[in-house]
Amino acid sequence: MTHEKRWWLWKPPPDARYIGKKGIPRKDAGAKASGKAVYCRDIYLPGMVYAKPLLSPYAHARIKSMKIDRALKVPGVIAIVKWDDPEFKERWPRWGAGYFINAGKILTKIPGTILPYIGDKAYFYGQPIGCIVVAEDEETCDKALRFIKEDCEWETFPFLLDWDEAMKTDIIRTWPEYCMKDNYRFPQKVWEYGNVEEGFRAADRIIEFTLRKSEEDVWAGVEGGVAIARWVSDYCEVWYQGQNIEWFKNLLIEYFNLPENKLIVHTPYHGALFGGASLQMQQDAIAATAVMLSKKFGRPVKLLDDYTTFRGAEFQLGTMHFKIGAKNDGVITAVEVEHVAVNALDEFGYEARSKLFEGTSIPNIRFIEKIPYVNRPLTICYRHGAPACNVVNYVINKVAAELGMDPTIVALKNDGCEGKPLNQVYEEIKHQGFDTSRWSLKEVIEIGKKAIKWDEKWHPPGTKILPNGKYHGIGFMEVIQWTHTPVVKDNFVPGPAVGIRVNFDGSVEILMQYPDGGTDRETTYSMIVADEMGVRLEDIVNYPFEDRGFFGSPMGGSQGLMKNSLCLVMAARKAKQLILDYATKLDLFRGKRAEDLDIKDSIIFEKANPENRINLAALAEKFPGELFVWADNRFAKETMPKHMPCMVRQAHFIEVEVDPETGEVDIINVVVVNDVGKAINVEAIHGQQYGGAYMGLGRNHKEAIYYDPLTGVRLNDDLSSYGVLLINDVKNIEPYLIETGLSYGVYGMCGCSEAVGASLSMILGPAIYNAIGKWIDDFPITPDKILKALGRI
């Protein structure tokens, strides 16, 4: 195995059969298509009981008294556990930004850990409150909860849904127990790069505007919140619907003072969590609560929290006020953004500023963050990074509009990293071995422009009316690609590790537990190992649902493949070397060295005499249990470069038609282009591009939760009334990818999966401006806002 430390320059084997190839069948396709795939909700255990929490019917209220006599008489009710139960009162798991706590001891450094899973006060509609019903079946839980809700005596408090009002007053306190003086949970923060005032003085023009996300959109997964737990003697078993397996397991060990060998965590398929449930950690709190209930009642417990799929709002809710300085040639000299991040969590406030700094040459940036709290759900990392993408989107497009320039030209003029132009960045990292003849942004823009026929269709705003009477518009945005490094120094999240074992039958088993949310990780990881070892894809066994002694990185932030692939490549190369070393012990290869042999299609053979061969199964039979290796990424943490700029880009284009009579928007064509550095599973990437496009576009003008301003109750609280895009709502999506190798992942790859869903979340704004000649900076852009901009209402 090579000891080359620059893993980003490693290449796949030259005769790779799977990496980067199309037409590779998904490993999970049969199970999912046939309905045989097992999700957490599918699990049933003998003797299992069900549990459900009461949900607050008010936006801001406290339980004064709770009568449970009538609910207890419902046949099938086993128990009703109240918030003040002495056994639970000080031990309720907490959810918020972090994980959970043990009797007041915070088990994580994340500062946002906040609400007990069950308490006596609610700060938003639908918050779990008061009690959990434990019953023989789900229907009985629901019936008992209806009685409890009717028999509760509530004390209601004034509430605010609008953050502008919340910032103006301290008379109405939205979260008084957490925002001690006013409605701000955290003090204002300021980040500054360069000299912003000097940048504004150097500008020819100053542009100011305010971008608003008025209504929240939610992470509406197809599988509601669920966890199952059972105790057998002093052993605990959990079926967990979450992303951070190792973190959760370690915290559970400490929470219940469990020896590690007495805790088993299973991770069935996830029902498409869409990037949610990673930072708000309801899933961890749900699972820990299920463990507590199972221990108390001595039976397996399935805790169902359906509302978790409609509880979390995206971190983007709020306003951004922009001040931008630019030269007349399109070079941007300074940007100041004041971000009002509603119900945000302090640790993650950097999200809205990060990509403007990381992916442009703008030398002077100031970012001001204010975090007011209103009586809506806590915001979470859902379709991660959208606020940061939209900062870049609007900075580029507003400058282009002010100057009458093509926004793709403005984007290229300001491309760079961390305030430096790209040529300077390339000079600084020239010793790292990258092909600096490649220019990622220029390449993705050229592909996208050609595909959508940009040069033919782009026109001055509001000037093209089609024969059908509709306005024609075209829009563009670009931003950096997602996770571009496989390791992060000083990261408190444990690093991934993987084992590889050759079984007696010659199958090669990947030993790594990780969550599967539908991104086809199983096939992707198998492709890497198959090509690196020279074995057939069908011989790879990759069963990520059980603890195999090694844990993979979670999916969050598109980091799963990035972090895990480095370990996979290292382990696969070690495994191949081990196999060849053991093969030289056979009489068949007597006198040969490992370098004289090779493996192809699971056959070990002599290079000079290919007919001299043995299959992998025959070798494994002769050395039972000895063909095993493992690898982690600690060497990379120790040897990673000090400077790792993000040089990979994505660019997306959209063509729309706007009906001036109804305000309806028809999405005619969408072109998404991602520089993935190096593609492993092409079909999986295209699947993420398609799915991300739908999710991102839905946030532009369909997805929104609406509240009754008089009661604070949600008015469209299920998928039947929540506006998601359907397949016919977008006429055409064309996905493209390129491979520049300009990233620090193994093979030069970078993350991709969440990128499109976040990036396209406000692309409709520039396109509608191009169509009607009016900016609508309040999202979602609904027909009434378009008609108002046109002066029709």
Give me the CATH fold name of the domain at 40-157 and 219-311: Aldehyde Oxidoreductase, domain 3
User: What is the CATH architecture term of the domain at 40-157 and 219-311?
Assistant: Alpha-Beta Complex
Number of helices: 21
Q: What's the number of extended β-strand segments?
A: 35
Helix share, percent: 25-40%
Assigned CATH superfamily of the domain at 40-157 and 219-311: Aldehyde oxidase/xanthine dehydrogenase, a/b hammerhead
Structural class computed from helices and strand pairing:
alpha+beta
Largest sheet: 7 strands, mixed
N- to C-terminal separation?
A: 70 Å
- The low-confidence parts are 97-112, 275-280
CATH class of the domain at 40-157 and 219-311: Alpha Beta
- β-strand amount: 15-25%
Q: How much is the average pLDDT?
A: 90
Major sheet: order of its strands?
A: 3-9-1-16-13-14-15
Radius of gyration: 28 Å
Q: Describe the global form.
A: globular
